[in-house]
Amino acid sequence: MTAESGTAALSIEGLRLSIGGHDVLHGVDLSLEAGRVHGLAGESGSGKTMTGLAVLGLLPHGSRVSGRIAFGGRDLLGMPARELNQVRGAKIAMVFQDPATSLHPMLTVERQLTEHMGHHLGVGRKEARERAAGLLAKVRIPGPEEALKRYPHQFSGGMRQRIAIAVALACEPEVLIADEPTTALDVTVQAGILRLLRGLCDDLGLAVLLVTHDLGVMSAVADEVSVMKDGLVVETGPRGQVLREPRHPYTRSLLDALPVPPGENSP
Amino acid sequence: MSPTSAPSSRRTRNRALRSPLARFLVRRIVTALLLAVGITLVTFVLTNLVPGDPVSANLGQRALGDPAIVAQWRADHGLDRPLPQQYLMHLEGLLHGDLGTSQQSHRPVLDDLAESVPATLELAGAAILVSLILGVGFGVIAALRRDRLSDHVLRVLSLIGISVPTFWLALVAFYVFFFRLQVTPGSGRIDPGMTPPPQVTGLYTVDALLSGRWDVFSSAVGHLAAPALVLALYTIGLLTRFTRSAVLEVLGQDYVRAARAKGLPGRVVLFRYVLRPALVPVITVAGLAFGSLLSGTVLVEAVFAWPGVGQYAYKSATTLDLPAIMGVGLVVGVVYLVINLVVDVLYGVIDPRVRVS
Ligand SMILES: Nc1ncnc2c1ncn2[C@@H]1O[C@H](COP(=O)(O)OP(=O)(O)O)[C@@H](O)[C@H]1O
Ligand SMILES: [Mg+2]
């Protein structure tokens, strides 16, 4: 919707969704750009997660979608399952809310980091292993070589989320959807994860959709901010504009609920 | 990497023992051995608590009247020693494969068991195999096709399997399939005119295959089919239901959605991400179910005249044949032990978290 919408890495247009006859999304518009973090805020139940899942075609049973999700000149919504599976994890990756449950508890970190490399990139075992160690270093897991042999439960929550981010980055995707990646974590490690995402976005030129119900999180890292309410994006724009001069009363009420006004602590 | 081979081989041996899985297995096996000793103690004590007098069961009327003969017999069988010493003698006998002499068949209990145990193992083993294949298979299908026709049909069938009493089913199956329809051969392990295959494992099906006796093999399978299916029906139903709910639960897990988000092929997601974790609760239930399946063999063996441990145990119990009862108790205890060991080991193999803790 902004001036540079021509360079959008991914754009969602008029996305509607009903699950089992119950309307969840009423025409969501969002656009992500390479090298930019797009923050998506809104209270829980407003449809943020469903918007992210719709992009990857992972909606729950009984879902009916319409609209358009444009990626690489194609509409993901109409894409055959087989082709969509080649986009998932390879071109568009997702990080989920709770790293305690989003990693397979019975597989080693190495296995989870490398299994999709084989499918998407066709790299051999040895090369995949080297890449996996490199990825762990990139997300700042200490002792990457040792960490590869371990299982998720042997790591702390923050470390697990870093591993999940490494898994998402393994096939060098263009788009990263992070669904409340810090909500389930201790406050003390949240900032580290956000900084990591910001850094990856800048270094790798990723287009990041950072979903959160926390506008405070948003103000720290997002370039663009969209606010959702009841299945609709009610406000979208550059961070400074949305957070300092909100136009929609709902955004204003969210900002008023924050303990510290977001404009003051952001750099 | 290492300059000489000797230190490197030592290092690999150390590493083998340091591997959590190896340590876990060693720990479990040691525990099982200790429990086996416990079982011998329990069977010994229980048998000695039974209010029966082995002297009067073994000696004739006239011999019983002569105190000298009675005392001699008791001394010969160590019955005049204190119980702990009797237990040690019993253990020593066990180590030499001496389970005593059956008062009924007047043969060593070991020989009796060597005939009846393989018969029951063949029956129960076939039932367990069928239960695992069908129960787990049906459960997975029902879960993947949730709320569709096949799911509903399988759920009704599994409910029937759980509710029908085994002894009734055994009688009905024997009557319908043998007397009425004559599609199954009658009782016993093979056709009456046939000679059993040379004993290697004691399982007729396996021994027949080993000796290339195809006629015996097909006869043995035919005789096995009806009692094994009757015995398996309950566990098939149970496993279908448990597998279904376990798979459904795993299907709703975040990591399954995460696996799809990685773009893994459907079959990888199914086997690696859904079935492997779902098997953990299924294995627990399977272990318990197979325990109850063993007690079902007593009835099924009686109906199908299957010469197994169930029949032997029943006969020994009604005649207070103490050495035989002790032998059967030992066998049953060891079988339960093995089932538990297998369940534990499978846990450790499937779920690495079990090994580490
Ligand atoms: N599996 C589901 N089946 C039916 N409705 C669902 C399901 N998951 C979520 N919803 C509905 O979709 C709406 C949006 O949910 P969600 O996208 O998870 O919200 P958010 O992520 O913003 O908290 C909610 O009102 C919820 O009731
Ligand atoms: Mg959500």
From TrEMBL, chain A:
Compartments where located: Cell membrane
Cite the entry's keywords alphabetically. Answer: ATP-binding, Cell membrane, Membrane, Nucleotide-binding, Transport
Query: Which Gene3D superfamilies does the UniProt entry name for this protein?
Result: P-loop containing nucleotide triphosphate hydrolases
Q: Does the keyword Lipid metabolism apply?
A: no
The protein's matches in SUPFAM superfamilies, at most eight in alphabetical order, are given as: P-loop containing nucleoside triphosphate hydrolases
* Pfam families documented for this protein: ABC_tran, oligo_HPY
Q: Which InterPro entries match?
A: AAA+_ATPase, ABC_Ni/Peptide_Import, ABC_transporter-like_ATP-bd, ABC_transporter-like_CS, Oligopep_ABC_C, P-loop_NTPase
**Residues covered by the ABC transporter domain:** 10-255
CDD domains, alphabetized: ABC_NikE_OppD_transporters
Membrane disposition? Peripheral membrane protein
Name the family: Belongs to the ABC transporter superfamily.
State the name under which the record lists this protein: ABC transporter domain-containing protein
User: Which species?
Assistant: Microbispora siamensis
Its lineage reads: Bacteria, Bacillati, Actinomycetota, Actinomycetes, Streptosporangiales
From TrEMBL, chain B:
Q: Which InterPro entries does the record match to this protein?
A: BPD_transp_1_N (IPR045621), MetI-like (IPR000515), MetI-like_sf (IPR035906)
Asked if the record carries the keyword Disulfide bond, the reply is no
What is this protein's name? Peptide ABC transporter permease
Q: Which UniProt keywords apply?
A: Cell membrane, Membrane, Transmembrane, Transmembrane helix, Transport
Which parts of the chain span the membrane according to its record?
21-46, 123-144, 156-178, 220-239, 278-304, 324-350
Q: In which organism is this protein found?
A: Microbispora siamensis
Localization, UniProt: Cell membrane
Membrane topology annotation: Multi-pass membrane protein
Q: Return the similarity comment.
A: Belongs to the binding-protein-dependent transport system permease family.
Q: What is the lineage of its organism?
A: Bacteria, Bacillati, Actinomycetota, Actinomycetes, Streptosporangiales
